[in-house]
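Lecture notes, structural biology module. Today: joint structure prediction for complexes of two components.
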Amino acid sequence: MDAVSGVSFLDDQSLVRKAQQGDRSAFGELCERHYRLAFQCAWRRVGNRADAEDVAQDALIRMGQGLKNLRDAALFRGWLLRIVINAVTDLQRRRIAERVGVAAFVAEGDTVWFEEDSQDRDAGLWRAVRRLPEKQCEAVLLVYADQMSHREAAEAMGCAEATVSYHVHEARKRLKTLLSEDAQ
Amino acid sequence: MSDPDFDLDRLAKRVVPEPRGEAAMLARRAAMEAFDETSKKSSTATQGTADRPRLIHIATQIWSHMMKTRFLSSTAVATLMLAPIAGIAAWQLMQLRETSPTIVGQTEVKQDASKDALAGNKIATADKKAATPAASPAKPVELAKERVDLLAAGKAKTEADALVRSEGEEQFAPAVDGGAAIVSQDTLTDAPAGVEVRRKQVAEPMLAQGRQTQNEATGLMAPDSVIAPLPMPEPSMVDEVNRDKFPEFKSNSVVAVAEQPVSTFSVDVDTSGYSSLRRALNQGVLPDRESVRIEEMVNYFPYSYAGPERAEDAFKANVTVTPTPWNPNTKLLHIGIKGYDLPVVEQKPANLVFLLDVSGSMDEPDKLPLLKSSFRLLVNKLKPTDTVSIVTYAGDAGIVLEPTKVSEKAKILNAIDTLQPGGSTAGEAGINAAYALAQQAFVKDGVNRIMLATDGDFNVGAASEEDLKKLVEEKRKTGVFLSILGFGQGNYQDVLMQTLAQNGNGIAAYIDTLSEAEKVLVQEATASLFTIAKDVKIQIEFNPARVSEYRLIGYETRHLNNEDFNNDRVDAGDIGSGHTVTAIYEMTPKGAPGQTNDPLRYKTGNEPDTYTTSTGEYAFVKIRYKLPTEATSRLVTQPVTDQNAVADIAQAPEDVRFGIAVSAFGQKLRDEDATANYPVAEIEKLAASAKGTDAFGYRGEFMKLVRLAQGLMPN
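The predicted structure, tokenised, for the full assembly:
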């Protein structure tokens, strides 16, 4: 059943369709190919390896559960990123819950969110991006950092393509202000 | 496009580490298991639990909701916070403008075993965070639970996720103050005694919009502990019918049991919706139909349901199945929950600071005079050992009364009587003074609360609302809570007030008449001061062999995802001492005419388990709650059988009949299809038959409102 059936030659869309029909190896190949995307997308949002790995794993599990519901296989990448983003949100929520519960007694763990990379000459830009309103920030990250097409970003955000463009446009305006504030 | 100042393409250049092969492998393995399990579930539709074969269907539905939700939610989400899921669910519901929002997803309760395998995987990655070795005996269980949550999340929570987005600032807020490291402890094992439940620091955006329920547990908490944010009933002052922004939402629709056998929601003991509605009707207008909250109407009234005997039980569910007055083909499932009545001797000492707005704008009959009377009532309700202080905020914010024992009642009442309106509002100075007094008279192990009374003209001076919220939140951590009583109309800043009360772990109540003051401050003083259970969630599983369709009446804004039920991290509403909570479902018995959903054509034939015979249970009610000082939830269950059924609504208990009348009225006001042919006069009759002794005249007043509405309604 698990025999390698040459799925590695298929493109993503075909893999998605096969997996949707229950093909395990096609699904495995999808995981193989896209773990990196999921991990890196997560890393850009949580900023540390441990959490990014958690999120990526969580996202892959959700992918296993939900892949059947993806209607347009061509939008797979955007769809996956949405799952990742949702998993990031979940993680953040859990973090809060955990902190509420016990962490009052616990010294700072090994989890640091957004360790600023002081070497990064774009640190200021990143900071500014993170200060954007949520939708704008998400759109910018998807389009520029994750390098999704507007169409894929629209899928990831669950909105129309035009809305993505709008958010990006607004984000640019906002960023200009934010960065000039920083400069002062 | 590219701007010289900043080149967004540089964002892609940030060096992102490569994934570790090992992590990728683990993730892949876990994903494969999830994949296999999902495939298995959708192909072999047996195994008894009714949720099995519907996975695809429900998931598809979720998907379409998700699409819509994501699309519609852009402004709403900005107002959300991370933690209080109930609030989120509420918004979610408001955004879901069509189809059945009540039930999404499925319970996973019985599948722990199958999840353990996955939990194993989780451990592999989790132990880098949790110091406990993966082999530790307790761990797999907890992680399994967590994993169940996660898995469940994958199915249905994605929908909620769509909405659980928050302001960018928050999303990226550095989590510096908390040791996010601990996975265990606060899940389903016993919480260590005295765990300090602390609020996060990154909370401003969250606070700004979060819904926390009144959480008045100080009395029952460890001395220096403070309480986590909880979802608050929706802000529901339908103040100024035309003027206030008020969230609208669609009614729950009829759900086929075959598709979604499980319904989950959070309790709601907020009642301000009824006050607003009353005012509208008294002014001769029908309330905005979309804003009518049926559950708040129903829960406004005191009911004498049987309560639990011991505080440990927290509460008891009373279920009744009765014919539906407005539909011969359906039955109503009435669930009446009664909180444990804290005997007076168990009540903790209270240290109350009245922070009273006496600014010029309060100089109206329904403001300052009403305020004075209200607080006199409250003072009379207090024990001699309680402490009261009074601070006014007006032009000259000042201390009117230093902390005084209620044994010197005359002194307190005199201070209230001498209050004079005048000056502008100086909110900030007033609130600082109030907190100082509260600290001065702080009662360890007691209730320390500021009761802010205002018409909402809350001028916080130079300080921003943000700062104010921060202040309230900080003070809450020291154990001083804040409740807000709104007076007057037209000027009432509901959103700010709600936010402040939520941040202060308090209630925001609207007081329009002295009897309302009596209800809020006196009748319910113990309820709103002493929480006996927190995060109370209700889940009902219907038996498809007996019930083919159901509809939850009200609670649209309190919807929870089914998987949230067993997730102790998901906040829900609180219940105070002696509180009652009522939920009513309309259900269509199997085989009865008048089904609204066609049977599923492609449903694979899976006859349910043996327990599901046509004479068996209608449904199974599960209630999860936490005691105020515990982080671990407890479960109360109650089957609904023919023994709970009555053949005629006249045989139903008085309280049940009255609650049904109120819910019918609410549905009328919402112009729902279900009650379209049920005349208002019948509602009045039903209510009249269930009026009982009505010691405080609440029910009589309700009937008056029904009559008023009758004159205003088109039919």
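Point to remember: Residues 138-163 of chain B form the longest helix (26 residues).
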